[in-house]
Amino acid sequence: MIAKLKQFLTSHSQAVTPEEQTRQLNLAAVSLLLEVVFADETLSNEEAKLLPSMLTDALSLTQSEAEELIEEATKIQGNSTSLYEFTSEINDQCSVEQKQKLILAMWKLAYADGQLCRYEDQIIRRTAELLYLKHSELIQMRNIAMEAR
Q1: Cα gap 143→103, rounded to integer Å
Q2: How far is 72 from 30, CA to CA, in rounded Å?
Q3: Do residues 69 and 55 lie in contact, with contact meaning Cβ atoms separated by under 8 Å?
Q4: What is the pLDDT of residues 84-116, one digit of tens each?
Q5: Which domains are assigned to the chain?
Q6: What is residue 149's DSSP assignment?
Q7: Are 133 and 98 in contact (CB under 8 A)?
């Protein structure tokens, strides 16, 4: 019975295509970015412009593909119960450098409207913690984002 269960789990995990894995990873990353955008309960014009442009640059998407991804991630993010469901996907598939880039993007979004609210700060810090990044990496990404403003 245990052998059959192992076989089922192995065959099920191999059924996910690389395209589907990439899609799930992108949705997880965008959902985390949306956590920052909606942390202060307002969507500024700067944030609304910055998020799609970040996605088109970082993921080589068209504007419409980026907007579709944002729309789908908004639905997922709205039904989520914790950051863990997004960070676990990222931990499974991303390098430390990719995680740092995500945190940098989160900081850039947080500072896009000219002010950092405490909820944005808390979400980014919690995300970095769940991504197993060092505090020094978190601060380094924050400083880069602040210099880029």
Answers
A1: 11
A2: 9
A3: yes
A4: 999 999 999 999 999 999 999 999 999 998 889
A5: 28-148 (1.10.3680.10)
A6: -
A7: no
